[in-house]
Amino acid sequence: MNDDYAVKLMKEAEKQYLGPHTSSAFELDPRHLAFTLSRYKFVAKMLEGKNSVLEVGCGDGFGSTIVAQAVKNLVGIDCEPYVIVNAVENKWIKERGKLVVHDILESPYPEKFEAVFSLDVIEHIHLEDEDQFLRNIVHSSFDSSALIIGTPNKTSESYASHGSRMTHINLKTHASLKRTLSEYYQNVFMFGMNDEVLHTGFGSMCHYLLALATEPITSLL
After folding, report:
1. Which member of 24, 173, 202, 219 has the lowest number of beta carbons within 10 Å of its beta carbon?
2. Can you tell me the distance from the alpha carbon of 67 to that of 70, in angstroms, rounded to the nearest whole number?
3. Within 13 Å, how many C-alpha atoms sit on residue 23's CB side?
4. How many CB atoms within 10 Å of residue 216?
C-alpha cells in the first residue's frame, strides 16, 4: 500500500468514535473487548449474505458493524435511548444498517427478518419476561428464519465479576438454553466459547454459550 494513501486512511479514521459501551470496555478491560468481538464474528459468518437481519440489544452498535459488513441489511434495536443516540458512526452502519430505539419486551419489531441475533441480552431478562422476549423475536421473523442467542454459561458464574453477578439475573446452562429455545424453534444447535475460542466441547466447561436455532414453531407465528 502506498505510504501516503495509508496515512490518509489513518487520518480519516483517527477520530473514529467507538460508542459509550465500547469506549468504556476499551478503557476498563480491552482483553474482554476481543472476546466480545469474536462472538460477533461468529454471527457474521453464520448469517453471511442474509438480506435482512435484526439484532436485539445492539448497544452502541460497535459489534453490529462486524455483522453489517457480512449481510445486506441490518437493523439493530435497543431499549436504551442513550446508546442509540450516541452510537458508533462508520461506513458499514451508514450503508447497510440502522440503529433504532425499540423495546422487544413491549412488542415485536414492525418488520420481519430472515435472521435475528441477540448477544449478552437474555441473561438480563427476568425469567417471567422471557416468554414475551422470545415470542416477540419469533413474531419479528419469517417462518424460515434463524436465531442466534449468545449468553454466559451459568456454570462459569463463580468466575464472574461482582457487577456481572448482580445484573445477570437469568443465566442458562448449556442444557437449559437448548431446552428453552426448543420451545420456540424446531432445531437448536449448540456451540461454546472459552475466551475467543469457539468449539463444540463439553457444555459445562464452556464459559460462553452460543445457540443457533432454525425454523420457528409455526403455531407461535
Report:
1. 219
2. 5
3. 11
4. 24
Q: Which set of grid coordinates corresponds to residue 219?
A: 403455531
DSSP for residue 183: T
CA distance 70 to 215: 22
**pTM score, two decimals?**
0.91
Instruction: Go through the domains of the chain in sequence order and give each one's CATH number.
Output: 31-220 (3.40.50.150)
Question: Across 17-170, where does the E strand assignment appear?
Answer: 53-56, 74-78, 97-101, 113-119, 141-152
**What gap in Å lies between CA 65 and CA 210, rounded to an integer?**
19
Q: Tell which residue, 20, 63, 19, 25, has the closest CA to residue 44.
A: 63
β-partners of residue 148 are 117, 212
Q: What are the grid coordinates assigned to 86, written together?
A: 450516541
Q: What cell was used for 195?
A: 475466551
Distance CA 65, CA 70 (A): 9
